[in-house]
Amino acid sequence: MKIIGRIGDGSTETYARVILLKDIEREIKAEEIVLIKNGGEENPVNEIIGVLREGLGKNEFLSHSAYRPDVAYLKYGGQPSGAREVYSFRVMPIGVKGENGFEPNKLIIAPRSPVYLFEDDDNPLDLLTVSIKEPEYLEAFLEGHEKWRIPVLKEYIPYHVGIFGSTGSGKSWLARYVLVEFYKRCGYDVLILDWSGTDYVPYFEGNVISITDIALDEESIFAYLQDLTYRFGDNTNVRDAFDEFIEEWPKKIQESGGSHERLYEMLKRRVELMVENIERKDWKDNARRACRRVFRKIKPEDLIPLMGTISIAELLKRLRRDHLLVIDMSGAMVESKLGFFLSLGAEIYREMDTGKNVNIAMIIDEAPQYAPWDAKGIQLQTSEMIKNLAALGRKRRFNLTLISQGIKGEIGINAAVRRNLNTYFIGRIHPLDASGEGGASEWLSPYGIRPEQLLQLKPGRFYFAGIMNPSPVPLLLTFNPR
Fold first, then answer.
1. Which residues of the chain have a pLDDT value below 50?
2. Is 0.70 surpassed by the pTM of this model?
3. Which domains does the chain carry?
């Protein structure tokens, strides 16, 4: 370690600024980790580990709001004196170094206390694991220090994870190269729902199942068709006809010989027959009109996603055998994808409800498609399913990892779902998340992380915050894609 400066005035137990030694500002960067010997080198009252943030340069003679000789000199092309320039960083305390790890600092950080920089051979992140019996690490490291791997509290995996960042920030990289292997090492089988079929499917060949090969349960099929037909033309008789036909759906697929065109004709004939059997004329006329509207909306190809024969139970059995499974959700309509998720969620919830630890980490790409901020129709059901899975999953070793461009609003996740996430990886944010209540800026600004920094993060850089992080202060991590 080497000394880089001393604490200035105005410090408290949670706030301090280090005034840098001469020319140190040329080499010290934000996000470096430092040690404060609180009270002096010889006999400090405690030793505080902290992160450097909010750098500041001051030159009282170069105030832009006051006219002084140095400003006049500068206006005419002169080089003002730097003799009175002062450079400083805010130190965000991680905690007080002790025998059993870190504790919150409760003593005032004394002005004049020396501040030391941890160098590559002095890994401060090891101090975060002192009280952990079997520490686990991500295949990621603190920005600028490849030897300093990021420790994790693995017991909090079932408390759920959110990955947030704008397009191109590296969200899928983080999931593929860091979290998948981490979850597997910790005893979880990883199930990935790839919404577009492009972010994960090409990287896990041999572990991919297409959504069109999976059989849905009757409730999910009903919800899918209801959403597709605008609630069956708002006619009770037509709805009942669909409901009756959907019973024993696998048998209907067998009768159709696996042809979606034939299945469509079977469905249409059955619904029309039930409509014609209505005795009351005005009801029959209403049902006929609704039936025509419905079958203008629904086409034979809309039934293709419902032709799968692999049951959800078989899918989970394969997941437990191979420990990794990617569902390719490309080529299906939104309603079909959400219908599949309802079937999958219902089976996992049933297992957990019987008292079974499922040991599953489910990574959901494009999470706002399942739980948008203003959920309607089938999305109300998927949002509720995610909330129920999250609540019970904490006790049954089930993890949800939700990936989203934004945290709140039109690009974010439903607030009721978001409240169940307790660990966050926040990369370069969307401008809509840079301000306002509930966004990334509001989450991270108490830790000295400004919105403009979040808007400029390079791809593959994420602030790691929340309950899985042994540090109470978010850390900036990165990784090397393989």
1. none
2. yes
3. 2-122 (2.40.30), 136-215+309-478 (3.40.50.300), 218-306 (no CATH)
